[in-house]
């Protein structure tokens, strides 16, 4: 067969193989054209799952009579005119293939009128050469596209269509995605003459959340945490569900948009998954509706036939930006879990002034947040939802109310037995009068030359482990152990802790007094691995040690400045201890996490095994229990 130019209809049908997969693809392409035309109302009529009829009517700008024939031609578009336009594209469509491809596999009619025209005009293409016929019609300002008998002339494609219900389900999902992208547009969807969906245009955050609830369901709205995160030309907005309250049904809600274009991008999904991985169970998936805004020059949208994927020029920057945004809102939720904490009357704390993030990240609280740190003999004020664990996931299960509760790491019978041991008479002196707080007994020194705390038997509470060594039983506070571990990681030994550069530096506005405090503490912060830059009104955090890498620096750094303002003579150990206390969040532990923490603590601080700090270990006196058994 000689080389020859394909007929226009055949060429368009080949192109339709990429653009038009099923009726839902037609709806997507036509609705996106309506949005590009500036429509504020779009009516979608479907019959027989789209196989018989797809009608899209909008009130957009319309198409001029002399451009109607071009609208149905291949590679004809008003969106771009040069390569520069393509590289800075902000419209949803730009290839000029959709109408030509759809008209080649269906009976398509285009009716449109502009505000300047007195009458509307109708166009349709037919025949082997796709000749366009134009005739006058009655129509308001806007455009209507009717697609009849989809795939009527391509039987092989029509055979692959599913049932009417299945095809309409795909159309419904496409409309749902578009409705989430454009809250300012009214979208109505009907099927076989019955109104199925009505998404009314809304303005403002509260109406947007109501529309979000109507699309994604009240269960998602109850768990949704709002995100508003910005750095330079990057902005991330939307909602992410609290991971511990995410159910299998909510996990199906995974919508992301880049410059208003719905995407299924692996890089974005990986960043979100990585941000939530410490708080998700093994079989859990994050649920989110997120909108990424980026300079159009920094993203290539022309990499997928259906424009479902994009390519970022600085993919690592985008990945870390999304990761930090999601982590920040999850950490803020962990610090303030729906007012589960009762206010505690602590000593007045110095509060830094002018605490506003220069990057407009709205996670900087006007006052330092109240952090709950588990200490020995202090009942944790968070339940399982209050603290984001940095040790693993899958330690909680969702309750019927959507909020998970801690799952005990030991059997009830074992717990009762160990509690009986704990209820033996105390061997420590009784506390002194209330005017003076009694000091706890010194921690037991461990004999021998082994640098090990012993064997972890079980957990007797959410953050207390039962250890055995040389025939002795001891209680160990896991929160104190973690605090000691964090402090050891932060304290400079032979050399300063390795500073981890931040891909997106954190910039905070500070007052003149705060600037003086930071200037004075600059050498000390540098020894601790915190690299900063100062200008007249801002402090920029450029690098932090590894333990601070996952923290919300927008909150932690202002609190650190407040601490340094109060403790003018604090040495490196004191500052590291303060940071360590703020890194430890009350949480339920597992035996595996307890073993891992103790192993790392023994490696970094072998001297701590010989001389445990106050509040870390408590020896259990078994003699009273043994006497009771022998009736002595």
Summarize this structure as a short list of keywords or feature phrases:
single chain; 632 residues; alpha+beta; Heat Shock Protein 90; Ribosomal Protein S5, domain 2; five-stranded mixed β-sheet; 19 helices; 24 strands; elongated; DNA damage; DNA_mismatch_S5_2-like
What does this molecule look like?
By secondary structure, the chain is α+β, with helices and mostly antiparallel strands. Among the domains are: 8-194, Heat Shock Protein 90; 205-335, Ribosomal Protein S5, domain 2 (2-Layer Sandwich), CATH 3.30.230.10. 33% of the residues lie in helices and 22% in strands. The chain has an 8-stranded mixed β-sheet. A 5-stranded mixed β-sheet has the order 9-10-13-11-12, with helices on both faces. A hairpin with a 3-residue loop joins strand 22 and strand 23 (538-545). Helix 2 packs parallel to helix 7 (164-181). The protein is elongated and about 100 Å long. It starts with 7 loop residues before the first helix and ends with a helix. Belongs to the DNA mismatch repair MutL/HexB family. Keywords: DNA damage, DNA repair. Residues 367-379 have a biased composition (Basic and acidic residues). Residues 384-402 have a biased composition (Low complexity).
């Amino acid at each position: 067969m000689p080389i020859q130019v394909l007929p226009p209809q055949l060429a368009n049908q080949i192109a339709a193989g990429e653009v038009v997969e099923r009726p839902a693809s037609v709806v997507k392409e036509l609705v996106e054209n309506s949005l590009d035309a500036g429509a504020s109302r779009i009516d979608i009529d479907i019959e027989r799952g789209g196989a018989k009829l797809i009608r899209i009517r909008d009130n957009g700008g319309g198409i001029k009579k002399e451009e109607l024939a071009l609208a149905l031609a291949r590679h004809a578009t008003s969106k771009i005119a040069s390569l520069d336009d393509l590289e800075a594209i902000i419209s949803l469509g730009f290839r000029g293939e959709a109408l030509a491809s759809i008209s080649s596999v269906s009976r398509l009619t285009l009716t449109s009128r502009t505000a300047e025209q007195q009458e509307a005009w109708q166009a349709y293409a037919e025949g082997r050469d796709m000749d366009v016929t134009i005739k006058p019609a009655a129509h308001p300002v806007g455009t209507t596209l009717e697609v009849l008998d989809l795939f009527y002339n391509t039987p092989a494609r029509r055979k692959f269509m599913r049932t009417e219900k299945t095809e309409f389900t795909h159309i419904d999902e496409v409309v749902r995605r578009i409705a989430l992208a454009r809250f300012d547009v009214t979208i109505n969807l009907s099927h076989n003459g019955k109104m199925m969906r009505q998404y009314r245009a809304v303005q403002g955050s509260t109406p947007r959340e109501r529309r979000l609830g109507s699309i994604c369901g009240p269960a998602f709205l109850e768990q949704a945490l709002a995100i508003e995160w910005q750095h330079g030309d990057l902005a991330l907005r939307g909602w992410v569900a609290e991971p511990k309250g995410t159910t299998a049904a909510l996990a199906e809600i995974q919508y992301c948009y880049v410059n208003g274009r719905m995407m299924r991008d692996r890089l974005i999904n990986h960043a979100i998954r990585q941000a939530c991985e410490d708080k998700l169970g093994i079989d859990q998936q994050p649920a989110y509706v997120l909108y990424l805004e980026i300079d159009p020059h920094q993203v290539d949208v022309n990499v997928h036939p259906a424009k479902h994927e994009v390519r970022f020029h600085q993919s690592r920057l985008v990945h870390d930006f999304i990761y930090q945004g999601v982590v920040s809102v999850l950490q803020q939720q962990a610090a303030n879990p729906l007012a589960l904490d009762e206010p505690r009357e602590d000593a007045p704390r110095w509060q830094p002034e002018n605490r506003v993030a220069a990057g407009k990240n709205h996670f900087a609280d006007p006052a330092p947040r109240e952090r709950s740190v588990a200490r020995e003999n202090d009942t944790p004020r968070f339940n399982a939802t209050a603290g984001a664990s940095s040790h693993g996931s899958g330690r909680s299960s969702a309750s019927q109310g959507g909020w998970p509760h801690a799952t005990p790491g030991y059997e009830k019978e074992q717990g009762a037995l160990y509690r009986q041991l704990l209820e033996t008479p105390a061997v420590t002196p009784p506390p002194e009068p209330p005017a003076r707080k009694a000091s706890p007994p010194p921690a037991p020194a461990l004999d021998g030359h082994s640098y090990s705390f012993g064997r972890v038997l079980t957990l007797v509470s959410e953050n207390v482990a039962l250890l055995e060594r040389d025939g002795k039983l001891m209680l160990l506070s896991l929160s104190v152990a973690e605090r000691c571990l964090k402090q050891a990681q932060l304290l400079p030994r032979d050399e300063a802790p390795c500073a981890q550069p931040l891909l997106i530096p954190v910039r905070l506005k500070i007052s003149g007094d705060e600037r003086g405090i930071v200037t004075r503490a600059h050498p000390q912060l540098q020894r601790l691995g915190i690299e900063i830059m100062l200008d007249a009104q801002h402090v920029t955090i450029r690098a932090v040690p590894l333990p601070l890498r996952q923290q919300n620096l927008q909150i932690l750094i202002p609190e650190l400045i407040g601490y340094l303002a109060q403790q003018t003579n604090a040495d490196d150990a004191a500052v590291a201890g303060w940071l360590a206390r703020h890194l430890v969040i009350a949480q339920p532990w597992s035996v595996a996490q307890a073993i891992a923490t103790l192993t790392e603590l023994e490696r970094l601080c072998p001297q701590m095994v010989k001389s445990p700090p106050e509040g870390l270990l408590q020896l259990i006196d078994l003699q009273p229990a043994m006497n009771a058994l022998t009736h002595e």
